[in-house]
Structure formats: C-alpha cells, structure tokens
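Dear colleague,

Thank you for sharing your sequence with our group. We've completed the structure prediction you requested, and as agreed, I am returning the results in plain text so they can be pasted directly into your records. Please verify that the sequence below matches your submission; if there's any discrepancy, let me know and we will rerun it promptly.
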Amino acid sequence: MSDWGWPGLLVHRCGGALAPENTLAGLGIAARLGCVAVEFDVMLSGDGVPVLIHDETLDRVAGRSGQVSRLAADELLATDVGRCFHPAFSGETIPGLEAALLRCRQLGLAANLEIKPAEGFEAETGRVVGRLLAAAPSAGLPPLLLSSFSAPALEAAALEMETLPRAFLATHFDARALATARRLACVSLNLGRRGLQAAHVAVVSDAGLRTLVYTVNSPEEARRLAGWGVSGVFSDRPELLLADGSLP
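Please find the predicted structure tokens below.
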C-alpha cells in the first residue's frame, strides 16, 4: 500500500482483460489474483438505478441493441454480458451498484467508482450515486474513491457525500484539468497515459494532488511511471504487473 492508503495497482473495469468488464466475475478474478483494488463504471438505467456499464448502449458488451438510459433496471440486470466475452462466462449479467459494493466488501477490495453518466444525465447520475452511498451503512461500504470525466457529476455526488475522496478524470494533462481537480477538492487527477510526461506529474504533485494513470499494461511502463512519482495505475493486465512486483 502507498502512503496515501491506496495500492499502486487498480484493476480496470473489475477484471481487466481476464473477465467480462464491469461484472461480479471480474471482481472475483481480481481478488483471486491477489489484487486489492479495482475500478468500475456506473451509469443510470432508464428508471434511475445505478448499474455497472461503460457504454451508453449494449451493442459491444451484450451483442444486442439497447440504450442504457432508456432501459429499465430489471432488463439491464438480466442482460448477459459474459457470452460476448467468452462462452465460459455465459450467464454473467450486468450488476447493480449495490451488488458490486457488497461483493467488493466481501472480497476485501477497495473500489474506484467512476461515475459514467449518459449524455444529459451528468448531475443526476452523480446525485443518485452520492445518495446511495450516503444512505449505506459505513460498515457496509468498501474503501472508495469517486471519479469522473464529468465535473457536474462529481459536484453533485459531493453535495450528497462530501467526505468521500474524489478524483477528476482527463484524457491528458493540461492546466484546465488541474484547475478543475483543485476546484472540486479532489485528492487525485487521473490521467491517460498517452502524452504524459514526468513534468506533468511533478506539477500535479506540487499542487498537492496524486496522479493515477490509465490504462497501463506493461511492467516497463509501470516502472517508469512509478519513477516519475505516479501514485498508481489502472491496468487490464494485472497479472503481468503483479508478477513484476515493482508497484507500491
């Protein structure tokens, strides 16, 4: 664990490349590998229930049409997203946020919950997620870090549960992204790996924030980023980074 209480490796979308993304199966695989932290995406169903999914449609993960923001939670929660990944995962369905948090708690996994609103639902998604977390017994929640590319989503979530640590997401470093992270009282600026430089990490650190980087799949790159002072990386290949043993 690092000196800020989070490990240097977070498994991208629950299980990385080893499981259908954003599923309970992925959480199980991450835990069996010995990982202690994961990341997953949360979007609202058409009837306002937070579920784990990255895309606004079901096409890629389920091989069928359907707009997440227009479908009821019951239909989404019954949607098979395992079969398209591999027949061995057939029957693995989209989980609800509450089920994912419970499984993380049971498995001893910390979670970076990325608020991933469908277009036009930014503040509402943040508000619903924040209220759900605020209403949950503190003993029932795993260690959490909230993140989003959407400043309105993070702001809305913070109004409901101010004490949860937050991170602003950006595809690349620039002054605007850093200013947004500071305005939102974030503890971390989460950045894409492409174009990232050691000087960027130093600027973020000088501003009093951590840097987490996505999506890092080679041990060599992970070692280089650690040398720059990056606090952690998101990876689709956690087994490779764990075997290397170079992350904090």
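Summary note from our side: The beta strands are 9-11, 37-44, 50-52, 110-115, 144-148, 166-170, 188-192, 210-214, 232-235.

Kind regards,
the structure core
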